[in-house]
Amino acid sequence: MVTGGSMKPVKKKKTEEPELEPLCCCEYIDRNGEKNHVAACLCDCQDLDEGCDRWLTCKPVQPETCEKITDTISDRLRIPWLRGARKVNISIVPPLVLLPVFLHVASWHFLLGVVVLTSLPVLALWYYYLTHRRKEQTLFFLSLGLFSLGYMYYVFLQEVVPKGRVGPTQLAVLTCGLFLILLALYRAKKNPGYLSNPASHDKSLSSSQIECLLKKEQEKTKGFPGTDTLGGLNNRSLKDDMKGSSRMGAGSPAKVKEDWCAKCQLVRPARAWHCRICGICVRRMDHHCVWINSCVGESNHQAFILALLIFLLTSVYGIALTLDTICRDRSIFTALFYCPGVYTNYSSALSFTCVWYSVIITASMAYIFLIQLINISYNVTEREVQQALRQKTGRRLLCGLIVDTGQYNRGNPYECL
């Protein structure tokens, strides 16, 4: 028994956690939390072995096995880097390998060119609908677009410029156009206008808190006599729309509740929408563009339009220079469809194949650019157009090319004159 004095509390020694050894450039932590090495990428792959055994014995491979094989390959596909090997997105690889192979095969004969150049858009659309149905992000189209720009420029320098028909000024203009495209894409790839949750640091709101917040937002709108039934103030400025965290002018509790995003835990402002691919709400969302692997919203819409415009001008200029070089003494439109003797020389055949590939890409981008200009002229977004078509509230014009939703269209100012 201890008497007298005060007993000093006994301090417990903290258990020191073992320090992890630093990773070398070829080591990494796999999806199972274990240390692995790049050189062992083909070792201990039971799913791949099982899939190969079934394929050799002509047995069907289960979809779950294919998904496991894909996950394993994507986890082990890495490149050496400082402080551990970096993971490479597997969707980047196919365009880097398949595009040069397809274009070179298409240059062998005219019929092969027709088959390959027809199948490429079909394969791209198939992959687009496959990823769009699964609501997954993919770098395939971004990799395809950037690599196509680089590879077309490489073929132009290697096969077209040495023929002596392209001057230094023309080459400089084409090069400047390429750099402007990359700059505009970089700007369009930035934040499209993501909505930040003011309660993101707190726990998720309960149902009673959500109902309370919705009632407060409804009470705020009662003092605005200029509010219309479609959810927008007639004289609301852009500054108010930028700062508003709730949709102004919701005339009913159902309308206010419709603006509540349960995933982002916020009340969306007018014309904002939740992107299921990015997993976040975007202010004045137009659409999710797979070519930049990001949404097109309020903050990057202008840069997106500018990138399309610069690409169209640069692509048409490059096509004209190439056709003028390999098909002399013919107009551009005539040379595109009739260029005799172009397949006698492999260099000219490759250039001609790349021209047609560029024409296909340019035509698809021109269609997107036209739709964007029409939507801007009617003050609607692509998401609002699709929603109006689903709800059958839009008005089709010009054989369905134009869809007037009637919500935010300010009308033709010259009709009143």
From TrEMBL:
Its main location: Golgi. One of its GO terms (molecular function) is protein-cysteine S-palmitoyltransferase activity. InterPro entries: Palmitoyltrfase_DHHC, PFA4/ZDH16/20/ERF2-like. The keyword Lyase does not apply. Residues 257-386 form the Palmitoyltransferase DHHC domain. It catalyses: L-cysteinyl-[protein] + hexadecanoyl-CoA = S-hexadecanoyl-L-cysteinyl-[protein] + CoA. Pfam families: DHHC. It is found in: Golgi apparatus, trans-Golgi network membrane. PROSITE patterns: DHHC (PS50216). It is a multi-pass membrane protein. Its EC number is 2.3.1.225. The chain crosses the membrane at residues 88-105, 111-130, 139-157, 169-186, 303-323, 355-374. GO terms for biological process: protein targeting to membrane. One of its GO terms (cellular component) is Golgi apparatus. The DHHC domain is required for palmitoyltransferase activity. Belongs to the DHHC palmitoyltransferase family. This is Palmitoyltransferase. It comes from Nannospalax galili. The gene is Zdhhc23.
